[in-house]
Amino acid sequence: MKWLLVTLSLLASPAFAVQPDEMLSNPALEARAREISKGLRCPVCQNENIDDSNAAISRELRILLRERLVEGDSDQEAVDFIVSRYGEFVLLRPDAEGANLVLWLAPPLMAALGLGIGWATIRRRKRAPDEALSAEEEARLEEILKS
Amino acid sequence: MITELGHFALILAFGIAIVQMIVPLIGAHKGWRSWMAVADPAAISQLILVGFSFAALTWAFMSSDFSLKLVFENSHSAKPMLYKIAGTWGNHEGSMLLWLLILTLFGASAALFGGNLPATLKARVLAVQSAISVAFFAFILFTSNPFLRLAIPPLDGQDLNPLLQDPGLAFHPPFLYLGYVGLSMAFSFAVAALIEGRVDAAWARWVRPWTLAAWVFLTIGIALGSWWAYYELGWGGFWFWDPVENASFMPWLFAAALLHSAIVVEKRESLKSWTILLAILAFGFSLLGTFIVRSGVITSVHAFANDPERGVFILAILAVFVGGALTLFAARAGAMEARGVFSLVSRESALVLNNILLAVSSFVVFVGTIWPLFAEIILGRTLSVGAPFFNAAFTPFMVALAVILPPGAMLAWKRGTIGKAMKPLWGVVVLAVALAGLAFALQTGKSALGPVGVALGVWVVFGALTDLWQRTGRQGMAARLGRLGRLPRSDWGKALSHAGLGITIFGIATLMAWQEEDIRTAQIGESFTVGAWEITLESVERAEGPNYSSTVAAMTVARDGKEIGTLYPEKRFYPVAGMPTTEAAIRNGFLRDIYLVIGDAQSNGGYAVRTYIKPFANWIWGGAILMALGGLVSLSDRRLRVAAGAAKRVEGVPAE
């Protein structure tokens, strides 16, 4: 099914990204639309947002989004409307709820884990019996390492 | 006929690889010199045979031999010669043969230039390297044979994807593969060391040049790909956090970590087991990247389920090599005694922090890349993870890395004090903050991205220069300038690479923060203003290329009423592939690029025109080139050259 859509979208006259005729005359509204578009995925492309995408369906989505904004939707309402029709697949920034919490918490948790292990290892190593060098040896070592 | 010979050479090399995988390993175990000596000629003949096989395939593409299925599917007689040749690796089968060619190239280089390696270590390295070759020979011959014929040769081919018909992309895969596959050497050295049960400073010296070379190639490859995306895709994006890009970025991050931890092993005989683990992970992520790109699993789980043969094969290779190496690691790592002791504040600790940031950021990219797949298979949800996630999750790690880089690079080994390392850097701190303040005052809007990028860029670049300057000692200016030229090349390499990183950070942040965009319908002869520039659409004409037809616009760019040039953006259509492409016209500048794109004719007359002003765009790739250059300079350091066993021969790095 997806492949069929890809083929169809390629056959349809390829229009590129945002077209002048679909832009809103209200610059504030248009700027909001652009910003939201960057977070919505083109349903038939590989990892392209609808703002950059050339696919016909992306143009439809861009126009749909602008219609919602003109009707007075907030950013969140407009996005929710599109998600309710096309599914969470179109969100390039996945919601931080449910299982997705794992995704969002993974970076800080992994960083904490990495730093914890690093800290513990260095502390342990420091306490390990040090064949202590005399000040003289230390100075010589510095010299050798510098050279 | 040549095709059949190429096919035969490939099968013959497969046999040799199996011998090279087994005989030297037994020889090293039993101490039989003659068995160990099998590895050298075997590695070299593998290279010659695979080289011949690759040449045969290239010849088939050059001569448009459409009786070959691969040529028919990926080439066309009207295509320019450069793209016929590049078409050899512009497809799955051919690119895997290129992968194998580079794998055997590295194996043969180790055989040729590894003269002063201990005999058993060398035999084991070459045996492990050959084991990887065996896996990929089998993969190519059993699932992706490029030498299959068609029963009825068609008259002409189906053409290469037009987006790929570009000089930037023609050389992108070979560099990327040199990087990916170069990491196999680090892996082979790691596994060989685990088998030997010995890791010392000498081992780290042998591993470092290979890793450095792989990292340099990977840097160039990634930069080429990003540059290509910038000028070819039509809106000047340079990085998309696409799974395929992430596949090359993860090994790059690991290779960078490995480079730094190998320094600690070499200089301080510490972090040995961690370095071995990094070497295994770096190549593991290369294989994972190959799996992601080649199986199509990320694009669509269904595409994978329909044709699982290749994906499962690579997954098996990944499991056997990484799983095997990690098992060996678990069994042997305890024996890698650390000798060097260091305190919490020391260069060693700074490098550990560097490693943690690089490794964790790479895992973050991994989690984000794999999450949609995981969600679909385990949770039954189809969702996407795109640029907004990666920008939010990855950037903090790079900011932290940039902040700690200058003092970390100047801390004393073993035991240092932050105060002492920071002393020469306070001037840089002031400069960075001042320039960031200036940027904040000059910009419109209140975004922090631009000023922060400026501060980090200045901090890292001038920090690297300060580091280099501090290396010249404490005498007078003249003596210090004199010493600057006599500093070891590795010091220069370090400064260049670190400065390159700072420049890239600066370029990315300022481009993202301050680019300007204008989209409009312009009539022929109409002028409009974008930023400080006045742009006029002079004319739009049709033109014919060798295998495409094109709509070419002529647009003049003027500043303050003075014309500074005419640009010719194009929109091409490739009839064989039935695909349009946009060819942006870019006026490259030191401080900014002017980026013009011509679109479709509009119903009310005139054409859709997009204009971008992209500040400091070229600094992104300039910084990447500087990073790679720093790697090359470091690679030419006498210390590494001697260690790599080339005291007599001049080049101690993989022959190119």
Can you walk me through this structure?
The complex is a heterodimer of chains A (147) and B (656). Chain A is mostly helical. Chain A has helices at 2-11, 27-37, 56-70, 75-86, 100-127, 135-146. In chain A, helix 2 (27-37) packs across helix 3 and helix 3 (56-70) packs across helix 4 (75-86). Chain A is elongated. Chain B has 656 residues and is of the alpha+beta class. Chain B contains 23 helices and ten strands. In chain B, helix 1 packs antiparallel against helix 7 (119-143) and helix 6 (92-113) runs antiparallel to helix 7 (119-143). The longest helix of chain B is centred in the middle third of the chain and has 33 residues, at 347-379. Chain B is globular. The model of chain B is unreliable at 642-656 (pLDDT under 50). At the A-B interface, helix 1, helix 5 and helix 6 of A face helix 15, helix 16, strand 1, strand 7 and strand 9 of B.
Keywords:
heterodimer; A: 147 residues; mainly alpha; Helicase, Ruva Protein, domain 3; 6 helices; elongated; B: 656 residues; Four Helix Bundle (Hemerythrin (Met), subunit A); 3 domains; six-stranded antiparallel β-sheet; four-stranded antiparallel β-sheet; disordered C terminus
